[in-house]
Amino acid sequence: MRRRSHRHHNTLRAMSFFASALTCIFVTAHVEPVFGKIDTVTNIFRPLSQPAQEIKETSFLVLAICAVIFVVVAGLLVYAIVRFRHRPGDEVSEPAQVYGSNQIETAWTVLPILIVFVLILVTSRTIADIQNRKPVTGSVNATVVGHQWWWEIRYPGLGIVTSNELHVPASTEINRRPTFLKLQSADVAHSFWVPQLAGKTDLIPNRENLMWIAPTDPGTYLGNCAEYCGTQHARMLLRVIVHSPQEFEQWVKEQQRPAVEDASASEGRKVFFANSCVSCHAIRGTSAKGVFGPDLTHLMSRQTLASGAALNSHDSLRAWIRDPQQIKVGCLMPNMQMSDKELDQIVAYLESLK
């Protein structure tokens, strides 16, 4: 009776475990991220850029070898459990004594060495192929600077400075246009990671790291900082927006223009320049030359605010200026203690920066 009760208890535990697992899968399948449906979640096994494709192929080789090892070891374990299980009468006889086999010991020493050697060669070749790639004619060069907690993106050859959204052209079989990135940090260690486009690369203070991407399909790819960098690490999000070649050239022309002066937002412009906003932010074509915060020249062309913490809408922009700490606790942007009238005026001015 005790043995039967024990088996029943184990069965109930197993059923509870599987029920919990199915519940988690069901709930996960119906949860939507803040900025899109579940099909927008990035997947390292669906690469859409050459570096990510090479990493995927190497990872599949590693997984295949590990799977074979698992099957062999698990199979031998199951065989031993079944073949040498307890049988009636075993108590009266002693099992055969085995003292080892030189052949088996040699095999399980040599084979793992060969497997590790193969994995080292393949991995080293992939790393070297990715890291030693050189820019080609038509490639785009950008510098990404990590801040607490946002991304500054500069295009030195194009005269463009933006933030939190990296815009790049798509590569085709005929026209290869990879994007080469210089990664820097303004404060602490960060890590640049867009799973579908490339592997992780750290941004380290006083050091410059390099990486490149060559997306093939236009679209928006989500990434984030993959190195804990402080309170708002989880909200240091990143978007890589891949354009067709023609759309990218159009984006470049629009970003190269100075800020538009809208007469209807003149009062808000006065409020902006009368406050300390100009100490941190820059607006091209004006006297605002700040370098501590994001460049606002074409603020309204971006999809999000505060490095992905909020959508770039009228209400979100107003709430962000009213009290940034309500959206991103610990961020360096202060509450300027503006009146409702000043707040409306400055929001109107910022919305004119398209």
Name the features.
disordered N terminus, elongated, 354 residues, five-stranded mixed sheet, Immunoglobulin-like, alpha+beta, single chain
Description:
The chain has 354 residues and is of the alpha+beta class. The chain is built from nine helices and twelve strands. It has a five-stranded mixed beta sheet. Strands 4-10-9-6-7 form a five-stranded mixed beta sheet. Strand 2 (150-155) and strand 3 (160-163) form a beta hairpin.
Describe what is shown at a glance.
With 354 residues, the protein is an alpha+beta fold. The protein is built from nine helices and twelve strands. Strand 1 (140-147) and strand 2 form a beta hairpin.
Tell me, briefly, the overall form.
elongated
Instruction: Name the CATH architecture of one domain.
Output: Sandwich
CATH topology of one domain: Immunoglobulin-like
Going by CATH, the homologous superfamily of one domain would be Cupredoxins -  blue copper proteins
**Order of strands side by side in the largest beta sheet?**
3-2-1-5-8
Residue fraction in strands: 15-25%
Structural class: alpha+beta
Give the rounded overall mean pLDDT: 83
N- to C-terminal distance: 77 Å
Number of strands: 12
**What's the CATH C level of one domain?**
Mainly Beta
C-alpha-based Rg, rounded: 28 Å
pLDDT under 50 segments (min length 5)? 1-9, 21-39
Q: What is the makeup of the main sheet?
A: 5 strands, mixed
The sequence of SSEs as H and E is HHHEEEEEEEEEEHHHEEHHH
**Number of helical segments?**
9
Give helix % range.
40-55%
